[in-house]
Write a structure and sequence with these properties.
The complex is a heterodimer.
Chain A: E1 10-21, E2 29-40, E3 44-48, H1 55-63, E4 71-79, E5 82-83, H2 89-95, E6 100-103, H3 117-129, H4 133-146, H5 152-155, H6 165-177, E7 183-187, H7 195-212, E8 215-220, H8 223-229, E9 232-237, E10 240-246, H9 247-252, H10 257-265, E11 315-316, E12 327-328, H11 339-345, H12 349-359, H13 363-373
Chain B: H1 3-19, H2 22-32, H3 34-51, H4 53-56, H5 93-129, H6 131-146, H7 149-160, H8 164-191, H9 194-201, H10 206-218, H11 220-242, H12 255-261, H13 271-298
Helix pairs in contact in B: 2-13, 3-5, 3-13, 5-6, 5-8, 5-11, 6-8, 7-8, 8-10, 8-11, 9-10, 11-12, 11-13, 12-13
The chains are: A alpha/beta, B mainly alpha.
Chain lengths: ~375, ~300
């Protein structure tokens, strides 16, 4: 174990994280391409991007959960002065669940169908703290109660199928928080849930994160979730961070054409009925390798010749008013709006979220159907 | 909707879900399947007959009191004293068939249990370790599968000598690769599942994940295979006995052996082939029907 000088501010530091999937006879896929970010203790951070931009792979790489074969991980992931990449498996296992825990996208399939939920929570406690079965049971009941499951003590012996989707996600959260981790990674925790339940789960996460002082990395494609929860937001595209800023800054004046496109594509309740949706042109597959220039350029409305030269660097924006942490990877950014006027006319971000969700109400059904159809 | 209202709705959903519990669901499917009912009745009759053979059989299976009545070309058929007639040794056919159920059941259960346990052990090792362990074990299973089942059993039984024990071992060995392969593939599928990733992500140890999470979720095809293997074991046992590889002791009333013994008097006493044959058919049919019904109830692909 290498002990680095402990960073007084940051709980987790990810530096130049690179994940390359290699397959024999095919070109290697660079899923995460030099991602760097920091998480302070107690901070909530959002990783946003379309499917396939490398969000989930980043989180799996942090936890060391990627398969070893055919995957090359490089860079550095430092948690409290301890380098996690290259740590032996048993030390990683000790760390998982105790220091960093993760909540997954689909609560329907993330709980073992043949074990009672009580067992699935006590297992973590017994594993990390050597808690006696009796104490673990009491603690599990307390945790379930904390995540808002009515009659928690009575429900310990129930099986996952006896819970609804939202309740199962609460159980997942309870088991993730069982050992009071310092960092919680939530990988699209609300995507598989229906709209009203989404809001509840987000409220719960927010409250628990505040209570436990854990840091939270929220991985999502739903800008509404970010708007309601995260202090700092990183927008990823094709394996790289293209823009990062504080929440207000990002929603108020998105500078990267991709971020701007994402925000513009969110349907809004205050729009006229029948207003056409404004998707980003093309699909995430229309990318060019970063070494040839900006990966987003094939889909970018602001494309200029310079985009196809050298890859743009992630650079701080020269702040006009106050020093800012707004960073951008773009040679021809969207002009900054005249702040005062535009931000005041913009609907508050949380409201914007409800618009997003309303239109996506049918999605969970589709996802569940796909899961079930798989043999 | 207010938060409280949503909560109530969610709780209502919860209780609703309880009716559609997978376990209850499987049971409901089984109960509605006539094949399962018929199969269960057949198995129940078979097992009860085997257990209570001494009470049910009118005579001892080795009582040769009608031997004097047997002439060349004549064996007494069904009559009031002997419901199914008398065999060539002058023993009561019905009593022998009733006692025969004991041997069939014994061979079926022991050989299936033996084959299943070794197969499950090998399958678990292969499925849990993967890599070269998996490769080695599965190639070994492939070699065993390459030899036709009954032929393999004949070879083994001949090698081990004529006894009930060697029949059981032979049939068990033939069953091993079937169970091992089935469990391994089922485990491989479970290994990729979300809940395994989830428990890995909270630091659960590998063996614990295998034993507590993967294995219990992979067993349902093995249970189905178990019922079907029981049926096959009974047929194989009869087949081995028919070929003269069963027990060396002629007094043991074994259905396959009884069939073999009738060959000489098939023209004069066809009933002696008919009744043991029928016993084999019904007992095997029972296990097949139940096995099929179980597969239909457990296999999500066959669900409507």
């Amino acid at each position: 174990m290498t002990l680095l000088p402990r960073d007084p501010v940051n709980l987790l530091s990810v530096r130049d994280l690179e994940v390359v999937f290699t397959r024999r006879g095919r070109r290697p896929v660079r899923a995460v391409d030099g991602v760097s970010f920091d998480v302070r203790a107690g901070q909530t951070l959002g990783l946003v991007g379309e499917s396939g931009c490398g969000k989930s792979v980043t989180s799996l790489a942090i936890l060391g959960l990627l398969p070893k074969r055919g995957v090359q991980v490089s860079g550095s992931v430092v948690l409290e002065g301890r380098e996690l990449l290259g740590l032996p498996q048993d030390e990683l296992r000790d760390m998982r669940g105790r220091d960093i825990a993760m909540i997954f996208q689909d609560p329907l399939s993330s709980l073992n169908p043949v074990l009672t939920i009580g067992r699935q929570i006590t297992e973590v406690l017994e594993r990390h703290f050597g808690t006696s079965p009796r104490d673990a049971r009491t603690e599990a009941a307390r945790l379930l109660d904390m995540v808002g499951i009515p009659g928690a003590a009575r429900r310990l012996d129930d099986y996952p199928h006896q819970f609804s989707g939202g309740m199962r996600q609460r159980v997942m959260i309870a088991s993730a928080l069982a050992c009071k981790p310092k960092l919680l990674i939530a990988d699209e925790p609300t995507t598989a849930l229906d709209v009203t339940i989404q809001a509840q789960i987000l409220e719960l996460l927010k409250a628990l994160v505040v209570d436990s002082q854990a840091a939270l990395i929220m991985i999502t494609h739903d800008l509404g979730v970010v708007a309601g929860l995260c202090e700092k937001v990183h927008v990823m595209y094709a394996g790289r961070i293209v823009e990062s800023a504080d929440r207000r800054e990002l929603f108020g004046s998105p500078r990267h054409p991709y971020t701007a496109g994402l925000l513009a594509s969110v349907p809004r309740l205050d729009q006229e009925r029948g207003t056409p949706l404004r998707p980003i042109a093309g699909s995430p597959r229309d990318t060019i390798p970063w070494v040839d220039g900006c990966a987003f350029s094939p889909r970018c409305p602001n494309r200029i010749d310079l985009c196809l030269g050298a890859p743009p660097a992630l650079a701080p924006i020269a702040a006009e008013v106050a020093p800012s942490s707004h960073e951008l990877r773009c040679v021809n950014p969207v002009p900054a709006p005249v702040a005062a006027v535009v931000t005041s006319r913009r609907r508050p971000p949380v409201r914007l979220a409800s618009g997003t969700r309303a239109t996506r109400a049918t999605k969970p059904v589709k996802q569940a159907a796909r899961k079930r159809a798989k043999p | 909707m207010s938060l409280a209202a949503a909560e109530t709705a969610e709780i209502a959903l919860d209780t609703l879900g309880e009716d559609q519990a997978p376990k209850g669901e499987v049971w409901r499917r089984l109960r509605r399947n006539p094949a399962f009912i018929v199969g269960t009745v057949l198995i129940a009759v078979f097992v009860l007959v085997a257990i209570f053979a001494p009470l049910l059989a009118p005579y001892s299976p080795t009582d040769r009191q009608w031997f004097d009545e047997i002439r060349p070309g004549f064996v007494p058929g069904p009559r009031s004293g002997n419901l199914l007639g008398v065999d060539q040794q002058g023993q009561d056919e019905l009593s022998r068939i009733i006692y025969g159920a004991r041997y069939s059941l014994l061979i079926g259960i022991v050989s299936t249990a033996l084959g299943a346990s070794v197969g499950i052990l090998i399958g678990t090792l292969a499925g849990a370790f993967g890599g070269w362990v998996d490769g080695l074990l599965m190639r070994l299973m492939d070699v065993m599968l390459a030899i036709p089942g009954l032929l393999f059993a004949i070879g083994l039984a001949a090698l081990l000598g004529r006894s009930l024990k060697s029949v059981m071992i032979a049939i068990a060995v033939v069953n091993i690769p079937l169970f091992a392969r089935l469990l391994r593939s089922s485990m491989l599928a479970q290994r990729e599942s979300d809940y395994v990733l989830a428990s890995t992500s909270v630091g659960v140890r590998r063996w614990r994940i295998v034993v507590q999470h993967i294995l219990p979720n992979s067993l349902s095809p093995v249970i189905v295979q178990g019922t079907l293997a029981l049926a096959t074991a009974i047929i194989d046992a009869a087949g081995l006995a028919f070929l003269g590889l069963g027990s060396a002791d002629p007094s043991i009333p074994e259905w396959g052996r009884m069939l073999a013994d009738t060959q000489r008097s098939l023209a004069s006493a066809p009933q002696l082939a008919f009744f043991p044959g029928l016993a084999i058919v019904f007992s095997v049919l029972g296990f097949y029907l139940v096995g099929d019904a179980l597969r239909e109830a457990l296999d999500p692909k066959l669900r409507r």
